[in-house]
Design brief:
By secondary structure, the protein is mainly α. It has four helices and no strands.
Length: 132
């Protein structure tokens, strides 16, 4: 049976887990200074970014089908939507800068901000969907 909400809810948990795991590897990289953690972090963040894009697309489709919004421009009127897009953009910037070997400790600040936005955005999404 087709349920309008199921696809977004199916995909949204995967990037959340990947982003938090990548953040955990970032912290381990700073404290343990083992190069393997950089690769783990990059892989989890990279996959998180890809799956986040899928989640954003399915969220948009769900919002249209559930009549929460009527067009693409309406998505920026919903705080959950633009916070999640901003968080994905910050994760992408962090990913690019880390892969270019920029200062890993300073990038932890950007990564932390992205994690905070992710947590707050997911909370707003749960409220919007009346899950909490």
């Amino acid at each position: 049976m087709y349920d309008r909400e199921v696809y977004h809810f199916l995909f949204l948990h995967f990037p959340i887990a990947l982003f938090f795991t990548g953040f955990f590897f970032h912290i381990l990289l700073i404290f343990l200074d083992k190069i393997e953690f950089e690769q783990y972090m990059l892989w989890t963040m990279g996959m998180g970014i890809l799956w986040s894009l899928v989640s954003i697309i399915t969220g948009y489709i769900t919002a249209i089908e559930m009549e929460y919004i009527s067009s693409l421009s309406d998505i920026f009127q919903k705080q959950h939507s633009y916070i999640m897009i901003l968080a994905t953009a910050l994760f992408s910037v962090t990913f690019i800068l880390i892969s270019r070997k920029k200062n890993i400790k300073i990038l932890l600040l950007i990564h932390s901000l992205a994690i905070v936005l992710l947590a707050y955005g997911t909370h707003l999404g749960a409220k919007w969907a009346e899950r909490i």
